[in-house]
Amino acid sequence: MSNETGRLVLVTGGNRGIGLAIARAFQESGDRVVITHRSGIAPEGLDAVIMDVTDPSSVDRAFTDIETRFGGVEVLVANAGITKDGLALRMSEEDFQAVIDTNLTGSFRVTQKVLSGMVKRRSGRVVFIGSVVAALGSAGQVNYAATKSALVGMARSFAREYGSRGITFNVVAPGFVETDMTAVLEDSLREKYVAQIPLARFASASEVADVVRFIASPDAGYITGAVIPVDGGLGMGH
């Protein structure tokens, strides 16, 4: 796979799980990587800025810091997201809105921040981290599934607006992935999920990261507005 080394890659929510695997994958390819996190200590060997994607002031401060210290973002991976699961009848408006604010509005906010620089350079890659639940739905995740579905429409609208400027926008949609969150699943529930997956296992975070790295590479320069599943076949036909 060819690669333009030394690009500045920004991964939101890159301090753990899939986000951290994505950041490491780009770093291994020779790119400069900056991650965002809301609190705590940054992972060793990665440049990081504090950013809360739900707070416009925090986003403004973070991008001022990034541009001052590192320059313009050439690849954005909008990964930051949360879940607040619950059956629809019991879901509070606050829990619904919190997921929208982080997963959807937050993704729009950071994309808007990188656009002017990408337009001036007439090149750029934006990758949204979606989910198989955008196509399948998921009981107890009305809010989360709504945001992941909306990312598809948002990516495709961006793609139509800015394709002529050499910028691509795509969604990588993982299924079940081995992370700290899935590690605590009860064995019976894990077996139930695995039984639905044609490949009969969860993905590793690095398998998702490899697809993200490819879709942001020069080799994927003619792919835009696409949804790329990394779900072991769980979402086939949707």
Task: Summarize this entry quickly.
The protein is α/β, with parallel strands linked by helices and 238 residues long. The chain has helices at 17-28, 56-69, 93-121, 133-136, 142-162, 180-183, 187-195, 205-215; strands at residues 8-11, 32-37, 47-50, 75-78, 124-129, 167-174, 227-230.
How would you characterize the overall build of this protein?
This protein has about 240 residues and is an alpha/beta fold. Helix content is about 45%, strand content about 15%. It has a single domain (about 10-230), classed as NAD(P)-binding Rossmann-like Domain (Rossmann fold). It contains eight helices and seven strands. It is globular and about 50 Å long.
What's the tally of helices?
Answer: 8
Terminal CA distance reads 29 Å
Task: Work out the strand percent.
Answer: 15-25%
Summed over residues and divided by their number, the pLDDT gives a mean of 95
CATH top level?
Answer: Alpha Beta
- In N-to-C order, the SSE pattern is EHEEHEHEHHEHHHE
Outline type: globular
Q: Give me the side-by-side strand order of the main sheet.
A: 3-2-1-4-5-6-7
Structural class: alpha/beta
Helix content: 40-55%
Secondary-structure arrangement, i.e. CATH architecture:
3-Layer(aba) Sandwich
How many domain modules?
1
Features:
alpha/beta; Rossmann fold; seven-stranded parallel β-sheet; 8 helices; globular
Secondary structure blueprint with pairings:
Elements: E1 8-11, H1 17-28, E2 32-37, E3 47-50, H2 56-69, E4 75-78, H3 93-121, E5 124-129, H4 133-136, H5 142-162, E6 167-174, H6 180-183, H7 187-195, H8 205-215, E7 227-230
Parallel strand pairs: 1-2, 1-4, 2-3, 4-5, 5-6, 6-7
